[in-house]
Amino acid sequence: MVDPLRPSGPIRATLQCAHGCRVPQIPQLIAPSSPPSMGDRHLDLAFPPPGHCLPKTSSMSVTDSVTAVHDFRVTGYSLIDGMGVGRYVSSRIFTVGGLDWAVRFYPDGSTVNCVGNASAFLYYCSRDKDVRARFTLNLMEKDGRLSQVTNAYMKHTFSPASDNWGFIKFIEKSKIQASPFLHNDCLTIRCLLTVAKESRTQDVETSLVTVPPSNLHTDFQNMLDDGEGADVTFDVGGQLFRAHRCVLAFRSPVFRAELFGPMKEKVTKSIEIDDMEPLIFEALLHFIYTDSLPDNYKDGRAAAMQHLLVAADRYGVDRLRLLCESKLSETIEVQTVATTLALAEQHHCSQLRQACIQYMASPNMLGSVIETEGFKHLVASCPLIMKDILDRVSDIWKDKASEK
Hints:
Blueprint: E1 14-16, E2 22-24, H1 38-43, E3 59-62, E4 65-75, H2 77-80, E5 89-90, E6 94-96, E7 99-106, E8 117-124, E9 131-139, E10 154-158, E11 164-172, H3 173-176, E12 186-196, E13 200-203, H4 216-226, E14 232-236, E15 239-243, H5 245-251, H6 253-260, E16 270-273, H7 278-290, H8 302-314, H9 318-330, H10 337-346, H11 350-360, H12 366-370, H13 373-381, H14 385-403
Parallel strand pairs: 14-16
Antiparallel strand pairs: 1-2, 3-13, 4-12, 5-7, 6-7, 7-8, 8-11, 9-10, 9-12, 14-15
């Protein structure tokens, strides 16, 4: 009797490849089923017999990426509002992952379908190959923080045929004037961009020993906090800080001269510092021991970073001084730019000086800066700087005239 559930003839199996193509297989006859013997079970290579190890290799696909931030400051918003649908202002070209990008802001929307909304797009300027990217565009509040309500990440494969992607309805125009994003007629758009590199396949070495990342900075931080082996004490505004002479000397030429130079006999175990805040000196010691800023300084607050820059310059900690320059350059605003410029002039911070002059010379910005108390101090302490500011304003107006 024939089993109705078992076909009596050969079976033709049909498989599908990854592209959906049907691949016919060689007909196979189904033999009567029978329970496998112990010998058959040992022939199954997926389950080798006890004590027998099969050769094993492994591989994995690795896709690296590069992530960076670009802040695009749009000044004179009231002047570009109403410039027309499809018209835009663009950031300078910036590079992420070896490729060129730009942010474009459309004050009146990119198309007629988004009337009443501003648009913002990320443009792929290189256009020489396809590239996968993840990004988001968000407006910054005047204190440099992101809004709690942010736009979601977008993923897109950029190519010569599809070189832009973004938010058609970036923000409602009616909400801009009363929003915390508009400050002194200026908007700042932050682009957080991750660019995927070409995927590669590599072997997996199962026998490699995993080496943890370096914790040298943590050990030095603990050494500073514990005070074990400390051989010098600093009295800063009545607060005592214990430290290690050798660490200070090798990180600061000023400390080296003070602690091991010709005047070392006059240096007692307690050194008084009267012209610096304890919190600033604590941050200076933290950087000397760990080569990093304390967590509460990473937001780039102008007043704290200005004082820390002075301390870094005083003790010759050049990397900290440049780090302070960078942080201050990122947080320039109307109320602080003049005092920051005076500081840069006094401590020979050329990059910070240039950033401040560029900001002050921006269209519709100088008038607001002149009204601040910091500008009065700048004119009194650094009167010659006005020539550089006016020269930069003149260059900008010449450039605008040539574009017309």
